[in-house]
Design goal:
The protein is α/β, with parallel strands linked by helices. It has one domain: Spore Coat Polysaccharide Biosynthesis Protein SpsA, Chain A (Alpha-Beta Complex), CATH 3.90.550.10. It is about 40% helix and about 15% strand. It is built from 15 helices and nine strands. The strands form two sheets. It has a seven-stranded mixed sheet, sandwiched between helices. Helix 2 links the parallel strand 2 and strand 3. Helix 8 crosses helix 14.
């Protein structure tokens, strides 16, 4: 089995240090007899950051850095004719355009940059997801927050046991292209502009529900003090505000610092943590409160995924 394993990321300069930790951890856990390519789309990235990220390459783990704007501009006419959104809006939904942007791949993995890999990503890539659009993990980060559970069910129209986190996606790119996934998404976006808490994640849940392969939680393990720590993880995802580079005593934080040590950015990351003031922590708390409050308000809107589904609008593919 020699096919290249594409792993997609998207960052800007501010996130380069954390992507470096993710890439360093990925490289440390790969198999010697497989071929990997990390495809990093960026908005702005300094020459120094490009050089430091490229330095993490290995012979069988290539790192390709590419400007996001150029990739959006290269999309074919059938799609660009429907782009009535600005560039910034499109970048929020980047992972939804991967099938159209990269027609050379039939399958791929998208991963947020606030992760560490603790197992070979090839094991995730090799999972057969059949005719499903994506493989993903149930979003356990919302399970203990009743207003967010109510939001997924009453606004997105997806049961909490079926609502997935979009930070780690095993993507059936071929199937998504065959079903004109991005065209369907753009039609919904242009027509309804659904108010969302997690825009790309909520669209993915609404569109793909019923066509999702549910992965073991080891592939999207999130810090959660209400849950037992997993002994066997594959990817640790420091979701929302559970960032070891901001806070002490984050579950699985020791794993992050282990891979940060020789990432090329350890001093930068330590300096960031030391400068993470009480004001910034207070701002995080206020952002979380705002998120929860929006979760309670959005289901009251006249236009939600659930209401449109109940009105006979084709949301799910």
């Amino acid at each position: 089995m020699n096919r290249e394993i594409p792993i997609f990321f998207t960052i800007d300069d501010n996130y380069a240090p954390y992507l470096a930790v993710a890439l360093n951890s990925a490289v440390k856990n790969i198999s010697e007899n497989r071929e990997y390519k990390a495809i990093v789309l960026y908005e702005e990235l300094s020459d120094e950051n490009i050089k430091k990220l490229k330095a993490l390459e290995k012979e069988n783990f290539k790192i390709e850095l590419s400007k996001m704007r150029a990739n959006f501009e290269s999309l074919d006419d059938r799609m660009s004719n429907r782009l009535r959104c600005d560039y910034f809006t499109l970048t929020i939904y980047f992972r939804l355009f991967i099938p159209a942007m990269f027609p050379q791949y039939d399958k791929g993995v998208y991963v947020d940059s606030d992760v560490v890999f603790t197992d070979d990503i090839a094991k995730l890539f090799d999972i057969e997801i059949g005719d499903n659009f994506i493989g993903a993990c149930n979003d356990l980060s919302i399970a203990d927050v009743p207003p967010l559970v109510a939001y997924t069910e009453n606004a997105v129209g997806v049961d909490k046991s079926e609502y997935i986190n979009s930070g780690v996606l095993l993507m059936n790119l071929k199937k998504m292209r065959e079903c004109d996934f991005e065209g369907h998404f753009l039609k919904l976006l242009n027509e309804y502009h659904f108010d969302c808490i997690a825009p790309d994640q909520d669209y993915l849940n609404a569109i793909c529900n019923g066509k999702i392969y549910y992965l073991d939680e080891r592939w999207d393990t999130m810090p959660n003090d209400n849950r037992e720590k997993l002994n066997d993880t594959g990817i640790i995802h420091y979701n929302l505000f559970s960032k070891p580079w901001c806070y002490d005593d984050i579950q699985y934080g020791d794993v992050f610092w282990h891979y940060a040590e020789d990432s090329g950015y350890i001093d930068t990351i330590k300096a960031h943590k030391e400068s993470y003031t009480a004001d910034k922590q207070q701002s995080d708390k206020e952002c979380l409160e705002l998120l929860v409050n929006r979760g309670m308000e959005i289901p009251k809107n006249d236009v939600t995924f659930r209401k449109m589904i109940e009105n006979g609008v084709e949301i799910r593919l």
